[in-house]
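Box S1 | Example of a co-folding query
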Amino acid sequence: MPNLIVLGTQWGDEGKGKIVDLLTDRADVIVRYQGGHNAGHTIVSDGEKFILHLIPSGILHADKLCVIGNGVALDPHALVEEREMLTKRGVSVDRNLRISDACHLILPYHRAIDKESEKFRGTRRIGTTGRGIGPAYVDKMARIGIRLGDLANPSLFREKLEQNLAETNYLLEKLYTTHGLDAETIYSQTMSLADRILPFMDDTALTLHKAIKNGKTLLFEGAQGTLLDVDHGTYPFVTSSNSSAGGALTGTGVGPTAIDRVLGVTKAYTTRVGSGPFPTELINESGEYLREKGQEFGATTGRARRCGWFDAPAVRYACRINGISEIALTKIDVLDALPSLKIATGYEINGKKTEEFPRRVELLETARPVYESHPGWTQPTSGVRDFNALPDNAKRYIARIEELIEVPVTVLSTGVGREDTIIRQDPFAAR
Ligand code: IMP
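Box S1 (continued) | Returned holo structure for inosinic acid
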C-alpha cells in the first residue's frame, strides 16, 4: 500500500487529526515530522474526545507504531504530560512510540524568549502559541540546539545548557529587561523527566527505512498548514518549521522516492489563528456564525479563530507547493444553514486582478478578494455518509472547488466522528 503524507492546505486547523485517525486503520506507521506541541489535533474516538499536541494521532490505535521524527521540536514536559493523559485514559503508549534522538528540545528559556519577543514586537507580533517553538528552531539553525540524544549524556547536556543560558540570560535581562533563568533548575527539572522519555529514543530514520523495506505503509501526519510554512507560507506570519510536504522528508530522513501520494486537508471555508493577512476574513455576523457553528476555537490555546470564505487561489497554491494528489474537504456541514456562500477566485491588488496567491505578504495584506456567489443548500449534511445523498447545491459547491483548485475532492467530512465521512476514493487503494 502507498506511503501517504496528510497535511493542511490552509492556515492549520483543517481537521487533519480526524482524517489521520480515520486513515490510520490502513497504515502501519504514523509519523509526525515537524512542529511541536503548538499543534492541536482533535479526535473523537468512540464518542470520546482526545486533543493531541505532540504524539501522532495514530496512538489511539493499539497496534500502530507512532514515530516522532527529527523535525519535531520536543518539549519534554509536554511529552510526559501527554503520555500521562493518554495512559490515564486507557491508551497504551509505551509499546508503540519512538522518538528521534535528533529531535531538538524546547526548554524553559525558549518559552521565555517566545513570550518576551512577542511583547517586544508590539503590533508586528506574530501571535504565536507561546510554546517556545520559534526560539527552539532558531537554536537548531544557529547550531546551538540541544537534542534528545544529549539527555543520554548528562554532562554534555549540562555544558550545552550553561553555554546557551549565558547568552539567553543576557538577552532576557539586558534587552527584554526581565529576569534570567537558572541553569541548575532547568538541568534538574529536565533530567527528572529523562527516564520517562529516553526509553522512547530511537534512530527513527533507520526504523522507518526498515519499515519501508519490509513493505509497511507509512502515514506522515502534518501539523499546522501550508500557509504557515516558514518558506512557503505568509512569511513572517508563519510557524518556524516546514509544514509543507518537503518537511516530511527532512523531518524524518525518508527519501522522496518513498512517498506515493499527498492528501491535502482543506476546510470548506477558511480560518486562521494569530496575526497576518487573511483576504477573505469576515469581520461580521457571517464570521461569527462560522466561528460558533464550526466551534472555531484553538485546540491548543483556546483562542477564537478568525473565520472567512473559501479562498481558492490560496488552496490551489498549497496544492502546487505540496504536489497534492487528492483533497479531504472537511466541515462542509458547518455551511448548512447559510442561504448563500462565497468563494474567492482571485484578488485585486493595487488595482490589478490576479488569480494567483501572492507570495509577498505586503501584497497579500492589500489584496481584495474577487468573489463569486453560490446558493446555499439550507439542508442538513451533518452525518451524511453517501455522496449522492448530499443536496445538489452542496455537490455544486464541491465541484466548483475542485475546478478552481485543480485537484479532486476524494474524501468529505460531515461531522466529528470517524463514521461521518464520505470516501469517494480511498487514498490507499491501488490505482
Ligand atoms: P508558533 O508556531 O507558536 O510559533 O506560532 C506561529 C503562528 O502559527 C501563529 O500565528 C500561530 O497561531 C500559528 N499556529 C501554530 N500552530 C498552529 C496550529 O496547530 N494551528 C493553527 N495555527 C497554528
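The pocket of inosinic acid is lined by residues 11-13, 38-40, 126-129, 131, 133-134, 223-224, 228, 239-240, 273-274 (CB under 6 Å). The longest strand covers residues 340-349.
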